[in-house]
Amino acid sequence: MDTSAFQAWVHEASLLITEHATRLTELDSAIGDGDHGINLRRGFQAADDMIEKSESDTETPGAVLRTVGRALISKTGGASGPIYGTGFRQAGKALGDVTEVDAVLLGSALEAAFNGIQQLGAAQLGDKTLLDALGPAVVAYQAAVGEGGDLAAATRAAADAAERGLAETIPMLARKGRASYLGERTIGHEDPGAASTALIMRALAMVAAGETS
Amino acid sequence: MKKLINDPEGVLNDALVGFAAANPDLIVNLEDRYISRGPTAGKVSLVSGGGSGHEPLHGGFVGYGMLDAACPGEVFTSPVPDQMLAATKAVDGGAGVLHVVKNYTGDVLNFQMAAELAGDDGLQVESVLVNDDVAVENSTYTAGRRGTGGTVFVEKMAGAAAERGADLAAVAAVGREVNDRSRSFGVALTANVIPATGKPGFELGDTEIELGVGIHGEPGRTRGQMSTAREIAGVALDAIHTDMPLSGDVLVMVNGLGGTPLIELYVVYAAVAEWLEGHGATITRNLVGNYITSLEMAGCSITVARMTPDLTELWDAPVQTPALRWGR
Question: Which InterPro entries does this chain map to (chain A) (predicted)?
Fold first, then answer.
C-alpha cells in the first residue's frame, strides 16, 4: 500500500463512519452518553479534510496516519479522540518513513495501534471496549500473513475478525469508560467503540482489495 | 424537541457568543474555545473544563477567587487537548497551572495529553482529579467515581488559596483535601435531551426516579419510585454518610440539575438540614441553586464537605465570577 492507499483508507473510514453515525450514536445511547457517532464523524471528517487539503505533511503512509492521529486528538473530543488518535499515531510511527507498506509492516502498525490504545486506556480484552474488536483483528491479520496471505487477504481476515469481535461484545459487562457505570445493564448491547473499530477495519480491507467508492 | 436554540449543531458557539456579550470583563476565545480572565503575574492559575451542558460549570466560575480559565467541550463531550493547552498558556502567570479534572475517561485522557504538551513547552502543570460521587463503586470494574458537585467546592477553595499566593503544590494540596472531604449523590426525576441528537438520553417512567444519577444522565445505583423530598434527601444522605461519616462542621450544596424549580430545592434543603441536625452535623455554610446542571434534567444533587477552620476561611474568601460572587 502506498501513500494514496492510506489516504483512501482515511477517506473510506470517514465515509463509513458518517454513514453509520446514527447507529453508533444509538449504540452509545444504550450504554454510554449517546454521542459516539457525532463525535467520531466530526473527527474523521476533519482528518479527511486535513489530508485532502494537505495542510500537514502527508508525503508518506506513516505521515498520513500520524496526521490522522493528530486531527482525531484535536477535533474529536470525549475519550474517543485521544484513544483513536493514539492508535493512528502509534501505527504511523511504526511505519516510519517508508513509501510502500507491505503486509508484514502493516501488521506491525496494527499491533502498535493496539498496544498504544491498551496502554492509554488501561483496558483488558473482555472489558467491552474497542480492543475487543481490534485485538481479534490483529490476531487474524497476523495469522493470514503467516499463511502467506497478501494485503487484501490479511485485511479482509482482520475486518471479518473485528466484526466477530464486535458481536462477542454483546454479552460482555463493561468495565471501562462511561458504560462501566451501568454495570450489569451493559450486557446485551454491542460496544459502540468496537462497532466503530469494525468499520475502520472494513474500510482498510476495502481499500486493500481495490473496492473503494 | 423544544429548545431555545438556533441550530442543534451550533449551540455551543451561540452560547459562548452570548456568554461573551453578557460578561465583557472576561475573555472568550471562540477560535480556541476557552473562557479566561487573562494571566495574573506571580499567581498560580486554575484551568478546568469539561463537556458543556452543565452551566454555570465551568465558565461561570471564571473570575477573581476561582478559575482563571475554562474549556467548554461540545455538549457532554470532553474538550480537546488543543483547547486546554491554549487556555493553560493564556493564563500562566509564571507560577504554574493547576488543572481541575472531573473523573470521566474523556476528561482525564484529554487533560493528560494537554498537561504533557504543556510540559513539553516548559510550563509547570499539576492536576487535581475530582471524584466525589458516592453512587459509583470505586473499583477495578468501573472507571471510578465521577466528579460532580464537589468540583464547585474544589474550584472555589483551591482558587482562594491561589489568590492568597499559595504555590502550585499548596494549591493542588487544597484541591485534593477538598475533594477528599467532599461527597455527592444525585437523583433524577426526568431525562435530559442532547441538542444534537434531539432524543432523551435515557427513559424514566412517570413515577420512576434514578437514584445516584450522574451529571450526564448516567444511571446510578437503582431505579426507584417517586416519593417525598424528605425521603429522597434521606436516601442521598444515607449513601453519603455510609461512605464518609458526617459530623462536625459541614458545607452543604443542594444543587438543581437544570429542570427543578428553586422552591423545590429549598424543600430539599429543609430536609437535608433536618437530617444533618439529627445526625449531629452542623451546617456552617451552604449553597442552594443551580451550579452544576445536566441540561433540562429535573432532580437535584446533594454535596457535603466536612470543613476545617482553614477551609472555611478559603470558602469565605472573596469571589467574583458570573455564577458565584461575594465579599468583593
Answer: DhaK_L_YcgS, DhaL_dom, DhaL_dom_sf, Dihydroxyacetone_Kinase
